[in-house]
Amino acid sequence: ERARHRAEWRVELRHFWIAAVLSLPLAAQMPAMFGLWPGGEVHHDLVPRWLQLLLATPVQFWIGARFYRGAWASLRGGGANMDVLVALGTSMAYFYSLVVTLADRHDLHVYFEASAMIITLVLLGKLMEARAKARTTAALDALLRLQPKMARIERDGELLEVPVELLQPGDLFVLRPGDAVPVDGVVEQGESAVNEAMLTGESLPIDKQAGDMVFAATLNGNGLLRCRATGVGAQTLLAGIIRLVEQAQGSKAPVQRLADRIAAVFVPVVVAIALLTFAGWWLASGDFQQALINAVAVLVIACPCALGLATPTAIMVGTGQGARAGMLVKNAEALELAERIGVLAVDKTGTLTEGLPAVTDVVPAAGWTHARLLAVAAALEQGSGHPIATAIVAAARAEALGLPATEAVNAVGGMGIEGRIRGEAGVQTVLLGSPRFLLERGIGLAEAVSDDLAAAGKTLVAVAVDGAFAGLIGVADRVREDSAAAVARLQAKGVRVVMLTGDHPATAEAIARHTGITDWRAGVLPGDKAAAVEALRQAGNDTPLRVGMAGDGINDAPALAAADVSFAIGVGADVAVEAADITLVRNSLHGVADAIDLSRATLSKIRQNLFFAFIYNVLGIPLAAAGMLNPVIAGAAMAMSSVSVVSNSLLLRRWRAGR
Prior knowledge:
Blueprint: H1 2-27, H2 29-33, H3 49-63, H4 65-76, H5 82-102, H6 112-136, H7 138-146, E1 150-155, E2 158-163, E3 172-175, E4 184-189, E5 192-195, H8 197-200, E6 206-208, E7 213-214, E8 219-220, E9 225-231, H9 237-249, H10 254-285, H11 288-301, H12 305-324, E10 327-329, H13 332-337, E11 341-347, H14 348-352, E12 353-364, H15 370-381, H16 387-398, E13 405-412, E14 416-423, E15 426-433, H17 435-440, H18 447-455, E16 459-465, E17 468-479, H19 483-492, E18 496-500, H20 505-515, E19 519-521, H21 526-537, E20 546-551, H22 557-562, E21 565-569, H23 574-579, E22 582-584, H24 590-625, H25 631-650
Parallel strand pairs: 11-18, 11-20, 18-19, 20-21, 21-22
Antiparallel strand pairs: 1-2, 1-3, 3-9, 4-7, 4-9, 5-6, 5-8, 10-22, 12-17, 13-14, 14-15, 15-16, 16-17
Helix pairs in contact: 1-3, 1-6, 3-5, 3-6, 4-5, 5-6, 5-11, 6-12, 6-25, 9-12, 10-11, 10-12, 11-24, 11-25, 12-24, 12-25, 15-16, 24-25
């Protein structure tokens, strides 16, 4: 697609310059046409007519062949587009001039310059459109250039340098400081900070360690990383970004379909006005030439080029800017509807929170220390794959704690773990699990502390050693640092944020309070989230609300599909990305606010463009019908309207994601 846009730009540029070179000598006729030569002689042949014919013919039938093909295809399909107006208007001027030239009627004027200049000026508008497309994909080309051609891989203990195309999923590749990442992968060894600004728009490097993902075209910092390839070729995040952007740029927004319907009616109306103009002038003045030229002027100035460019150019630039900021818009309709969102439903896990439980509190009982309590708990949990166990072990490792040896560790009926540890105090029996687990064993807790942590939405892990309470560990899915600011930003835009979660009400309330969300639903099962989205839509009294949905997991997919506009936060689950209209590469709810900002900016440009296109026709057609515009001037005005629309759309390149 990008290669096609570049090729299209080169073809348009070549055709424009050929037409311009051939039309330039004909343009010498224009001053005489307006009586600007000394003595006021009108339409004196400064260029011999046979030379005018030779210059105008290739412009009309070689360079202008596209308009005849487009007009024929449109008419055969039962419609009429701008090509019909261009082909009809220029053909009338050309064939009239051809007849006058072949008949050697020097008493009559010829208008070869009108037909050639009109085509040249229309091509100028086409050139601007092709330029806008080429510039929009330039950022994607820059991303592709960041992907290295070679990669360092480890095979049989040797470090080899191979072309990126040869990498396969499962290959082990090595990133040295300053290396560009060749493919998507997961870090197996090492620590570093990776610059992902080119994909996510996030200015600060992201810390990476074992288990974290790295993405093709991002830039490694000062550390050495050994990574296992997970996505290569078309399966990389970068390739997915480019596919989505190209798909969005080729789609039509609802407002564009409206413009197409208007254009389909507009063209026959303009042809009728041109016929009436011709008949009116001929009957009123008896001047066939003047009647013909005024009719041609009506056809040319009414050419809806600007109308056809108003929406697609803005959509192309808008989706391109979105990609640069880490927003991947799947279709133009989503970009248009995003500005109308009245309610945003958000999933808790992975959207408002980081999606991974972490130890938030370690509360030792009397006679115990923070480090000893955490080490004992981690020792028993290190053999478990449960997310809470993983969080406790990770916390102990982060503090570089030595873990005591364990023996006879067993799970107890889904309530907790029982085992023994060997330490300075000898062999001790340890119970670890929910507070209820310890209470059933007759071990009392520090109830005040327990209640406070539970009220804060924490999951409690109670620890007892040799039948005595040793302390509590609070585990929670941490709220993202920017979630509260993002929620406030959305609310400032008039968007009501509603949290949907399957968690316990206490946890939901704590997260809602922390993020500033006043409306939340707890205990919502995955299958019920879609119904909750529909209920939010119908809560808009007489007018159904436009509802957005933001989530990142497989269980969010039905709700994402049910929403008017859906957002997949972060890389997320593949099924969530597939169901979403807009994928936010960055793990932040700020991306939704940015998408709404981008939607509003893009729709504002589309409305401005449509206004320019319509006002130009509203003013231009009466002037042309009144004989106040020459066809060449009408063509210039038509071209300038296209240029103004494209230039206005390109101003969207100034848009930046705001936080």
